[in-house]
Amino acid sequence: MSLRIAVYPGSFDPVTCGHLDIIHRAAKQFDKLIVAVLNNTAKNALFTLEERQQLLRQVTGHLPNVEVDGFRDLLVNYMTHKKAHVIVRGLRAVSDFEYELQMASANQKLNPDVETFFMMTNPKYSYLSSSIVKELAKFHGDVSDFVPDEVAEALRGKFG
Ligand code: PNS
């Protein structure tokens, strides 16, 4: 029997408690979950690809079926390379829907064997995003409820 492999793709700049909640829950549903960090040259990232991956590895190290990787390809090509058929995405609010629908539809068109599974973000984190966290950290706001300790420390390293 083939392994049920899912990919949770994203920028993860940096990983938040909202992402981590999706990772915990998705990892229970699949044999293997690959958290795939996009090396997106268009987005002005705060953390390098290596830093983002390193933080993800630190906060998911206790989850045996979670692997952290990076990609710079079309997601569907990466999925084929990894023999994965499911993309996991978290939905926070209606505002996420349109973008996610576009992406899921484009990916479905590019490879009809790939399915996107949506998971509702825990309501505790429905307003949370990496951008909000970076904005708070930049002005020395308290991010301890929004990101794991390792990430809070890395943010202090960036913003002093
Ligand atoms: O965390 P993000 O920035 O919302 O994640 C977006 C991501 C990485 C899932 C998306 O930009 C992506 O898959 N990029 C790779 C290129 C691609 O395949 N795009 C979708 C087809 S249009």
Overview of the molecule:
The model has no long low-confidence stretch (mean pLDDT 95). The chain is 42% helix and 19% strand. The protein has a single domain, classed as Rossmann fold (3-Layer(aba) Sandwich). Strands 3-2-1-4-5 form a 5-stranded parallel sheet, with helices on both faces. With 160 residues, it is of the alpha/beta class. The relative contact order is 0.21. The longest helix is centred in the middle third of the chain and has 17 residues, at 94-110. The protein is built from 6 helices and 5 strands, in the order βαβαβαβαβαα. The protein has helices spanning 17-27, 49-60, 75-82, 94-110, 130-138, 149-159; strands at 5-10, 32-38, 66-71, 86-91, 115-120. Strand 4 (86-91), helix 4 (94-110) and strand 5 (115-120) form a beta-alpha-beta unit. Bound molecules: 4'-phosphopantetheine. Residues 9-11, 38, 74-75, 103, 106-107 line the site of 4'-phosphopantetheine. The site of 4'-phosphopantetheine has 9 residues, from strand 1 and helix 4.
